[in-house]
Amino acid sequence: MEKGKVSGLLPIGVFLLLFIGSGIVFHDFYAMPAIVAFIIALAVAFLQNPKASFNEKLHTVAVSMGDENVMVMCLIFVLAGAFSGAIQAAGGVDSTVNFGLTILPAKIAVAGLFLISCFISIAMGTSVGTIAALTPIAVGISEKTGFAGAMCVGAVVCGAMFGDNLSMISDTTIAATKTQGCAMKDKFRENFLIVLPAAILTMIIFLVIGWSSEPVVQDALEYDLIKILPYIVVLVGALIGLNVFMVLIAGTVLSLIVGVATGTIAVGDMFTAVASGMDGNGGIMNMYDITVISIVVAGIIGLVKANGGIDYILSHIKRHVKGPRGAQVGIAALSSLVDISTANNTVAIVMAGPIAKDIADEFDVTPRRTAALLDIFTSVWQGIIPYGAQLLYASAGAAAVGLVINPTDIIPYLFYPFLMAVCGLVSIAFYKRKDK
């Protein structure tokens, strides 16, 4: 018997119709601000299920908005904005970019961004934290070399999703292994072998694009090593496994100290510098926008779930699963649809995990395989959807340092998520069961 109601997904459909539809019609994906489309979707969700009182619906929304994952994500946004503003004001971005272009050929700068982003995201365990640290550098490299800004930011997002999917301390890895009952090291081995070809191909693509271009460094490459110090602290802190909050706070404080010591930040302007990274310096998207959007989306998902939308997706997929390979396709589709609906890969794994385990147990798919598929396909979509935190922050982070790009402008350069999906499907097609 099919559970859930397809009507529960109506708010998601309304949002996609308004946001994507208006973008196509007006050739501008900011013709309708995302927050407006989400508020309309929230109103639609409130109008559903007349059996529940308004206060009951409001309680559901409030509980979903106050979820630990949502609040942690919002705090990361705020701290990431603070670090971005402080390091920019201190001159750290320019010095870091200039130093990098001094020691590396400009042709491999974009490939280098991808590689660094891969390492940092594995160490940090968070794609958003990685994007926060490296987006200003990506924008700087674009300005200095002439490479498209969206491509440079896209390289950072690609690397960020690589680590988000594989890191031992990533929320998605923890959620995937816990719901499937397997060891992290086993999931890592299974996962790594599937996505490694995608990472190698992505690196080759960025190298080919860079090598076939003629980047010209337009300005003198002046840098001050002390201004690079905050970035070094952030990157080393990430590599040794410090909590992302500690890393971003330390980077912000050190940026302010360096800025004051070198005279690039007046003592009276320290707090303004921090705030500038949060408000986006007048950009089309900023940290405050993203924080509010994340909270509103969480509320919508709470009602979508209460109205049977998520259960409909889960039961509909489970009902059509046949055979071990079909089971894996079902798990991939399940995790994909739930992530598209929730715009949060950790939440998607937590929701889809129990059903995926039932499917895997019934069709004899190993726990490590199931955990890997859950994490891979939620990461694929989380790195692509223009209303997800990753692309929203990438756009806002770029705007904070003077580059105005829409989330949709970045999508054509997201080679890694697309190739990760291809590699995941190929691995399913050639799947041979191994011992658990």
Q: What's the SSE blueprint?
A:
Blueprint: H1 10-26, H2 34-47, H3 54-65, H4 68-89, H5 92-103, H6 109-124, H7 127-145, H8 149-166, H9 171-180, H10 184-211, H11 225-239, H12 244-262, H13 270-279, H14 287-306, H15 309-319, H16 323-342, H17 345-362, H18 367-382, H19 389-400, H20 407-410, H21 415-429
Helix pairs in contact: 1-2, 2-14, 3-14, 4-7, 4-12, 4-13, 4-14, 5-7, 5-11, 6-7, 6-8, 6-10, 6-11, 7-8, 7-19, 8-10, 8-18, 9-17, 9-18, 10-18, 10-21, 11-12, 15-16, 15-17, 16-17, 16-18, 17-18, 18-21
Q: What does it look like?
A:
This protein has 436 residues and is mostly helical. The protein has a domain at 68-289 and 389-408. It is built from 21 helices and no strands. It has helices at 10-26, 34-47, 54-65, 68-89, 92-103, 109-124, 127-145, 149-166, 171-180, 184-211, 225-239, 244-262, 270-279, 287-306, 309-319, 323-342, 345-362, 367-382, 389-400, 407-410, 415-429. The radius of gyration is 22 Å and the shape is globular. The mean pLDDT is 83.
Feature tags:
436 residues, mainly alpha, 21 helices, 75% helix
Radius of gyration equals 22 Å
- Biggest sheet, open or closed, and with what strands and sense? none
Low-confidence segments, ≥5 residues, pLDDT <50?
none
What's the number of helices? 21
Outline of this structure?
The protein is built from 21 helices and no strands.
